[in-house]
Amino acid sequence: MSIGGSISGIAHSGIKRRFVVSLFYYNSMKTSVPYLDKLLPLEFPDENLLAVAEPNEYTVEGSAEELLASALAKPYGSQSLAEFLSGGKTILLIINDATRPTPTEAMLAGLLPVMEKSGFGPEQLTLLVATGAHRPPAEAEYRQILGRFFDRLRARCFYHDARNSDVVDIGTTRNGTPMLLNKKLFEADRIIATGSVEPHYFAGFTGGRKAFLPGIAAYKTIEANHKQALSPKARSLALEGNPVHEDMMDALPLITAPIFSVMTVLDREQGVAAVTAGGLMASFYAAVKIARKIFCVPVPARADIVVSVAKFPMDIDLYQSQKAIDNGSLALKDGGTLILVSGCRDGIGDEAYAALLASSKDPADALERIRAGYKLGYHKAAKMAEVSARAAVTAVSQLSAERLKSMFIEKAADPQAALDGAIARSKSSGAACPKILILPDGCVTIPEPPAER
Fold first, then answer.
1. Fewer Cβ atoms within 10 A, N terminus or C terminus of the chain?
2. CB-based contact 165:185 (threshold 8 Å)
3. Rounded CA gap, 54 and 32, in Å?
């Protein structure tokens, strides 16, 4: 009998890498995974545990407010915010929608006093929610985004509508993507872009340039940009040579007003680990360095079974939760089982990718059809089909079994049922002791098996 815990990791540059965290009791590994508003139990023999991989612990010196104040006082490649605002008359502040855990309220708490001291009142400020091709925010989501500033700023807060907002054509990218961006971008003489930086499964990283493309771009611009996601060079952590990133970069020199950026990097508990500010790309690349330290997690080997959890707010729908599938697949053996745990509170999130998968006879057929004719959303179908082509995918979700099956995903009643089925499947394929990897925050954790370090 074994009772106790085990933590394995190494300290490095303020980082504590954690890749094995286990609690043993009577030769069993007992844990739980978040699902909607509760924790669901998970138990299996301790000998089956490969790792529990979470974002690395990061030493934070100061509160979110102190980190923001420090970043604004020492910007990367830019004047201070007060100097940047000097001489301006109107500000466009670009903020993330509710599908991102960006601490917009905390950033507003630091930015608004500087704006006011520089002579800017609410009537000179326009907030634009960078929805990309997502749906408009619900009123409750505006409250979630703006927090205590809701009453003060709601009337000055608008959302970008990729299909209907007025846009300005500023040319094309090196890849031929037409660049049409929200007209409000060209009506302000100062632009402040906010966001959070974390790994992204085809853009390399979120944040920075993504505030503009796809954040406030026209539908056909987003569609052309996201088609580049079919390239093998469009993958998590990749920036150089990534055609999606190149498109985003090509938009920036064509924006006429000066840009000041405030980017956050969140820790494993979605608290603020770091804030970078200043020039858009200088602050972005500084945040990327920190994000790599937090979200890239070494694991001992590839697993037979990966349990990947989409945490709030990424559990909003399958479209967003797919990131947990893609990241989990990075450490999954061919022929293994990927278990997605996500409530998918708002359903699937987009009909295009789901319809494409549902009308395909198998994953290979889906991939062939995507190559033959791309529509926005098909990049999502392609990434899902690539995983389903080499592994079994099971989901613990509110989505119906029929809907999931149409996308080559098996439904399970709960994580334990999903895991029991995966273990049985793996043993029937010849694995005497199937190894299990758990990703409690699968949408942002990048597991790195030895050969890929």
1. N
2. no
3. 14
